Amino acid sequence: MTTVVTELSKYWRLMLLTLVLGIGGSFQYGIQVSVMTSPSETIQNFVNQTWKDRYGEPADESTVKLIWSFIMSIFSLGGWLGAINSGKIPVIYGRKKCLLFNNVVAIVAAVLMEFSRMAQSFEMILLGRFLYGYNTGLGLSVHLMYLGESSPKKLRGFLTLTSSIFIGLGKVLGQIVGLRELMGTDTLWPYLLALSGIPALVQFLGLLCFPESPRYLYLDKGDEEGCKKALEELWGGEDIKLELEDMAREREAMAGEKAKTVWDVLRSRAVRWQLLTLIFPCACIQFCGINAIYFYAFDIFREAGVPENKMRYLSIGIGTTELVTISLCSFLIDRAGRKKLMGLGYLFMGLILIVLTVMLSVKDKYYWVPYFNITLLFSVICIYGLGPSGVSMVLPADLFLQAWRPSAYAVSGTVNWLGLFFLGMFFPYIVEGLGPYCFLIFVVYCILSAIFLLWFIPETKGKTMVEIMEDFDKLNFKDRRMPINKEDFTLATKL
Predict the structure, then answer these.
(1) pLDDT tens digits, 247-256
(2) Which end of the chain is more exposed for a tag (fewer CB within 10 A), N or C?
């Protein structure tokens, strides 16, 4: 840990950029996930009252629930659209300008939320949630691109993992400020929903003080002098020569290739195993069962005899536990490696979920079972934070060369957001049909992901992009010296 702190002190300008990127990037995702929980009943009452004022009678319960469900799910649809655009906008306009535009979107969303009650319009909340989703979907991908391309390889794992730390921080802050003792009241909820405009404004102003991504300048724009100045500004003169040599090798490997499209990523054999790694253990992380754990948390607390008015504070404890363990992961990831932390994390999560499923099925037979289930719940959160949560943000930044990276993030974001949308739509029905046995679905995913990572995927820590590519080429092309067709040969030799 002392070594990491010493290294970070040398890159204090880069640390400031990391803070600015996190505040307006992954932090926005975390706060949007949790901030709607506490004021949900108040917002539904607002929808009902607005309907009554317009049509002279209150809406029926099913209509209110449908509108509320749409308010929640439209966030994922906006995120999907933002993720799709993350493959094109950052390539055309650069990472910095893309984020500046993205912050304007969040500020507009905040204004809509702020004035929705005054205008007596729940449609403004719907539009605001959609824009927040777009802001988050685009911001998550570009945040990781910008930070990964601005970091030295010895700190790349630690710094890109801070995106998960900011997600955890956003979740906890959203839970805290949403308490009825603070902003989750009948009078303050519009201000609560508009809260994301503040970090967007902070990032917008902060980014004006920083340069564009060095790798984008060198590899996409061919601006070697601009890249050198950006590195000097961010790194303070540390290791610039080695980094420029590394980028020169990557540019030589790319052989002047332009940015790839999503279709190129999906069909090319040259990145097949990178794509599999990006999608299954990383982008599909919602299927590890963490959302089911949060869903069952209140039931488990209730069975243990926790008073209803105390459960919100225990849920804050869950969010805090995730934040603390992700922070610990940041000091382990460049020591233990990506594949071990994530692979073993999935393995232990699967095993604990098996035990939790069994204990939930016998919860009424022994008095101590509910308390044991609380322990299992927090254990899963700890393992999730130490492994899959953090590494799923770091690993994608290691997998692709510059020409492939934006479109790869677009694919990842699409899978992530659509998975989140469909899980939110259908998970309640799965729970209704299977009860506690719904965890067995997530057990299968965790075990298969663990096997995939531990047995097949090469380690990426401490390696350059070209070295990582060479390791994956052994999987993409096996023992064949010549790929099947000419196009794959071109991609293989250039990459």
Answers:
(1) 888 777 666 5
(2) N
pTM (2 decimals)?
0.82
- The first and second tokens of residue 98, run together, are 């893309």
On whether the CB atoms of residues 349 and 446 are closer than 8 A, the answer is yes
DSSP collapsed to 3 states, the chain: CHHHHHHHHHCHHHHHHHHHHHHHCHHHHHHHHHCCCCCHHHHHHHHHHHHHHHHCCCCCHHHHHHHHHHHHHHHHHHHHHHHHHCCCHHHHHCHHHHHHHHHHHHHHHHHHHHHHCCCCCHHHHHHHHHHHHHHHHHHHHHHHHHHHHHCCHHHHHHHHHHHHHHHHHHHHHHHHHCCCCCCCCCCCHHHHHCCCHHHHHHHHHHHCCCCCCHHHHHHHCCCHHHHHHHHHHHHCCCCHHHHHHHHHHHHHHHCCCCCCCHHHHHHCHHHHHHHHHHHHHHHCHHHHCHHHHHHHHHHHHHHCCCCHHHHHHHHHHHHHHHHHHHHHHHHHHHHHCHHHHHHHHHHHHHHHHHHHHHHHHCCCCCCCHHHHHHHHHHHHHHHHHHCHHHHHHHHHHHHCCCCCHHHHHHHHHHHHHHHHHHHHHHHHHHHHHHHHHHHHHHHHHHHHHHHHHHHHCCCCCCCCHHHHHHHHHHHHCCCCCCCCCHHHHHHHHHC
Give pLDDT tens digits for 14-54. 999 999 999 999 999 989 988 887 788 888 899 999 999 99
Q: Under a CB-based contact definition with an 8 Å cutoff, are residues 395 and 458 in contact?
A: no
Tokens encoding 475: 């999987």
Is pLDDT at 377 greater than 80 in this prediction?
yes
Angstrom distance (rounded) from CA 136 to CA 147: 16
d(CA 86, CA 344): 31
Q: Which of 139, 130, 129, 137 is nearest to 100 (CA)?
A: 139
| Token output for 291 | 């959302």
Q: Are 165 and 29 in contact (CB under 8 A)?
A: no
Residues 388, 285: Cα–Cα separation, whole Å:
8
Name the residue with tokens 């993205």: 102
Structure tokens at 444: 């299968």
Closest to 78 measured CA to CA, from 113, 32, 121:
32
- Could you tell me the pLDDT band of residue 495, with boundaries at 50, 70 and 90? very low
pLDDT exceeds 80 at position 238: no
Question: Percentage of residues in the chain with pLDDT exceeding 90?
Answer: 30
Retrieve residue 391's tokens. 């590494």
State mean pLDDT over 185-213. Answer: 94
Distance CA 144, CA 26 (A): 9
Task: List phi, psi (to 5°) of 420.
Answer: -65, -40
Do residues 91 and 259 touch, judged by C-beta distance below 8 A? Answer: yes
For 273, the token pair is 């195993």
